[in-house]
Amino acid sequence: MKKVVIDAERCKGCELCVKYCPKQCLDIADSTNSKGYLPAFLAREDDCISCGICGRMCPDSAIEVFKP
Amino acid sequence: MSERKLFKGNEAVAEAAVRAGCRYFFGYPITPQNEIPEYMSRRLPEVGGCFLQAESEVAAINMVYGAASAGARVMTSSSSPGISLKQEGISYIAGSLLSPLIVNMVRGGPGLGDIQPAQSDYFQATKGGGHGDYRLIVFAPASIQEMVDLIYISFETGEKYRMPVMILADGVLGQMMESVEFPAMKEPKDPKSSAYGVTGAQGRPARVVKAFDLDPELMYNLNEKLADTWKKAEESEVRVEEYLMDDAEFALVAYGTSSRICRSVVDKARSEGVKLGLIRPITVWPFPKKAIGKAAGKVRGFLTVEMSLGQMVEDVRLAVDGKKPVYLHAVPGGLIPKRDEVLAQVKSIIQGKGV
Amino acid sequence: MQDVYRTSNSLTKNTMHYCPGCAHGIIHKLVAESIDELGIREKTIGVAPVGCAVLAYNYFNIDCVVAAHGRAPAMATGIKRVHPDRIVFTYQGDGDLASIGAAEIVHAAMRGEKITVIFVNNAIYGMTGGQMAPTTLVGQKTTTSPYGRQVEHCGSPIRIAEMLSTIPGAYSVSRVTVTTPANLMKAKKTIKRAFQNQIDGKGLNIVEVLSTCPTNWGRTPYESMRWVDENMVPYYPLGDFKVPEEAK
Question: Is the pLDDT assigned to residue B1 strictly greater than 50?
C-alpha cells in the first residue's frame, strides 16, 4: 500500500495537496478522470514523510495517508 | 361529571392545545391574540413544556419548524400581519410534511390595518398563502366550544395527512367569553418516538427533514404526493353545518363570527315567513363543495356574508357552478355585519328588487 | 501500515458538489472529525443553511434539516428546546448568517441557546453567483459591486465575531481560518471545543471560519488561500474573542 492513497475519481484537481505538500511529493496527472478533472497523484513516494497534510487540506476527502 | 368554565376565547385556544398534547409554543406579540402566548407562558412550564417569545414572527415560525422537525407537537398563534410574515416558514413546513398548529386571529387589513375582527385572510389561509403549491387544513370555528373541540383533534388530523393545520378565527372569537367544557388531558407523544423527525441517528440511518430538492423530478414527486394527500383530505375531512336548510328556498353561506349573525338572520327571516337557511363551512379547506352543490339544486340563490370584500364567495360560486345566482354581503375593514341589513338584502333579492 | 489520516465516520461517502478547491469541504471535515472524536454522531442534529452548504445534509452522516435562508438559529432553537439532550449545530454562510439572518443569530446568542454555530465567511454570495455580501471587503469587486465595494454607498463590512462577543448570552466566540496546516489545526481545536462546550451545557458557541470562493473570486484555490491571509485576516483578525477560562 502506498503512503498516500488518492481516490482519483473523487479528486477535482484543485492542487491544494500539491501546493501544501512540504516535500513536493505530489503532482497533477496528464489524463482526466471520468468527470474531466486532472487528478493529483503521488509522484515521489520516496520523499513522502507521511505527515498527513495533503489529506487534511483535501476538500474532497480524496486522500488517505498511512505510515509504514 | 362535566365541568363547564367561563373562558376567554384566546385562553381557551391555549388550554385546548395543552390538552391536545401540545408542549411547545413559539410566538410574537400582536393584537388581538396576546392572551394565547400569555397563557402559554404560564401554563406550559406547569406541564413540562416550553414557551418561548421569539424576536419576530419570522423567527417564531422557524422555531416551530425546528420543533416540528424534531417530532414535537408544537403551535404558534398570531394575527393577520404576523401570519403574513410567517408564510415563508409555513410554506417550508408544508413542504416538509409537518403538522404544527397555526392560529390566526384575523384582524382588518390590508397592511397594518386595524385590530378589529375580520375575515379578510380567507384567501391566504385556504389557497396556500406563501410560495409554491401547498394547502393547510383550515378550521373556522364559530364558538369557543367549537374552537376547543377542533383544536383538540387538530394535531391528530394534521399528523394523519402530514399537513399543517390552521385555526382561522378573529378578534371576536379570541376576545369574547363563553362557557366551555374542556376535554380530558391527552398524554403528549414522546418526540423521540417520531417516525420521521430528527432525533439523532441512534442505531438507524440518518434522516433529513427538508422542503428542497435540486432535482425537479423529485420535487415533482413531492408535489404529486401533496396532491394525493389533498384529495384524501377533501374526501374525508370536510365539516359543515346546515341550519334550517331542509325546506329553505334561499341560503346564506357564512363561517365563523359572521355565521353567528347569520343564524339570527335566519331566525328573524323565518319569523317573518321567509324560508331562509344557512350553510356554515366548519372547514374552509377542504371546502364543503358537495353540500353547497347539493343545495344549489333546491334553493333559488345564495348570499355569502363575509367580513371582507368577498373571498369565500369565489369558492361558493365554484361549488354552485352557475346553477343559481350567488350574491355577496361584504363588510370589510374590521366591521361586523348587521342582522337587519343582511335580512334586508335577502328580501330585496327574493323580491327581485336588486342585490 | 499505520493510519495517519483517514476520512471521518461522520461524513457520508458522497462526492461533494463544491467547486474544486472550495474550503467548505475542509471545514466539513473538521466538523465531522470533531463529532467523531467526541463520540456524538448518533446524538447530533445539523441545520443546513441556504447557500452553497444547503446540501450539507448529503455529506454529514447525521440527522439534518434544511432551514430557510438565515433562519437556521431559529430552527436550531426549536430543535434544541425539544431535545435538550441532543447536540445541535448550524452551518451557515455569510449571506445567510450576517445578512438575512442577522436577527436570528443575534437573538439566539442573546438567549444563550445551547447550540454550536459554524459560520463560514468567504466575503461573497457563492451559490447565487458572486454577489456582494455584508462581509465583502472594501474595494472588493463582486457581480453587484462591479466597481468595488464603496463605503459611502453600502457601508463597511460587518465583523460578526466582534459583534457577537459583546452579547452576554454568547458563551464562546472565535475566528479561525484553514489557510495553512497550522491554521487548520487551530480551527479544528476551536470547532471541537465549540461542540464540547455544548456538551457541557454551555451556549451559544460560534466559530467564524474565514474561507474561500475560488470560482467567484477568480483565483486558483491556492491563491485564494493566500488572499484570505493577505486581505481578509487584516480586517477580520483571528483568535478567541470570548472564551471563558473554564473552557480553555
Answer: no
Q: Output B1 or B306, whichever has higher pLDDT.
A: B306
Gap between the Cα atoms of B340 and C4, Å rounded = 86
Residue in chain B nearest C11 by alpha carbon: B206
Bridging pattern class, strands B24-27 and B276-281? unpaired
User: Which is nearest to B291 in space by CA: B310, B314, B316?
Assistant: B316
Q: Is B210 in contact with B96 (CB distance < 8 Å)? A: yes
Q: What would the mean pLDDT of B17-44 be, rounded to a whole number?
A: 98
Cβ contacts of C14 on chain A, cutoff 8 Å: none
Q: Is residue B355 part of a domain?
A: no
Does B198 lie in the same domain as B94? Answer: yes
Tell me what the pLDDT averaged over chain C comes to. 97
Question: CA-CA distance, B163 to B192, in Å (whole number)?
Answer: 20
- Closest CB to C78: pick one of B56, B65, B201: B65
CATH code for the domain of A52: 3.30.70.20
Residue A28, pLDDT above cutoff 50: yes
**Which residue of chain B comes nearest to C101, CA vs CA?**
B59
Counted domains in chain A:
1
My answer on whether B226 and B244 are in the same domain is no
- In chain C the first and final C-alpha atoms are separated, in Å, by 35
Q: Mind giving me the DSSP string for B123-162?
A: HHHHS-SSSSS---EEE--SSHHHHHHHHHHHHHHHHHHT
